[in-house]
Amino acid sequence: MHKLASDSLAAAFLHAAHVVAQVLAGRSLAEGAVASVPAAVRPAVQDHVFQCLRRYGRGDFALARLLDRPLTDETVRALLLVALTRLEIRPDTAHTVVDQAVQAAATLAQGRCKGLVNGVLRNFLRQQPALLAAMVDQPAEWCHPGWWVERLRAAYPETWRAIVAAGNAAPPMALRINRRCGDRDRWLAESGLGGRPWGSDGVLLDRPVPVDKLPGFAAGEVSVQDPGAQRAAAILDPAPGSRVLDACAAPGGKTAHLLESADLDLLALDVKASRCRRIDETLTRLGLRAEVTVADCRRPEDWWDGRPFDAILADVPCTASGVVRRHPDAKWLRRDDDVASFARTQAAILRGLWRLLKPEGKLLYATCSLFPEENAGQIASFLGRTPDARRCHEEQLLPDDEHDGFYYCLLEKIR
Predict the structure, then answer these.
(1) What is the mean pLDDT of the chain?
(2) Domains (ranges, CATH) in the chain?
(3) Pick the catalytic residue: 181, 368, 392, 409?
């Protein structure tokens, strides 16, 4: 069996192909496929995987025209997709890319696919201008599923192209300075990383860096959090001493930001024990305390002690259509009918939580979605059936070069 040097581009291609094949078979990246890759090559493999999935529609379009018949070996197909992406991104390295992809292919299917991989990639280079021309105004050009693009076009007729472009780009790296133990200006000055302030606690870095290279991270001085996500604590803004519920809290970033901002009696819930452990880990690193409970927020009768809350954060499950540049697998794992499915779950969460809120209390409904059915449409339906609810604030953030896409609506319970 052909053996690859562990630090070679061919080895990175091969690892990336295995991960991409798992995603195309229905496995989310959140399930840890990249984490199983050897640590020495993990950053390079993750880069190949993310680039491939962000641009998957283009590679899929090209393969459909370059192959005489569909491939039955999904890993070989994934290897071709990874290599095609690299050829588009780094055309100056075409010879090396083809050579290394063929070497990776030698380890698959007893080496029988070497000629196929070589031929497909060389044909792509010859036919690339025609293939690119054929992609114009097709879903492949936008690197999103067709149904997804149609929903964006209907909701954002003036800006959908910019939204799609942002979804295909690499995201910015943003941080949140823990105001309890750090000073943002001092951290910026002393870190030497380069960046600028954003919002009350945020920093936008000039370029991404590994988390373990962030000064003060282990000591809890700084966390990685998108600026759009940092809006939650600022909008809910519970008073010191408030009894607060974070109803869908994992992995704990918004929980921590609330606790960094004020002394609170905070209960954090998540439906899975593994996700609650992540909340605990986040709070421990930051030196914060909250009650963390494994529970389904839709069923208060299973966990609520009867004491109403002053403030509730409902960061509900959603399609994550506003954060696909960070989770590019979501574009290809989601289906059109998932939007309605998530909307039903969101409605159930709102119904379950509303009765737990004190009169004059506030509930912040939050998603990282761009689809109106999960956002303004959801809130309109809730207000229509909830006479003691009043909308105080609403904002839809669209993804751009500073932040991801988020929706927030602050609701008040009328006496």
Answers:
(1) 94
(2) 9-141 (1.10.940.10), 173-225 (3.30.70.1170), 227-413 (3.40.50.150)
(3) 368
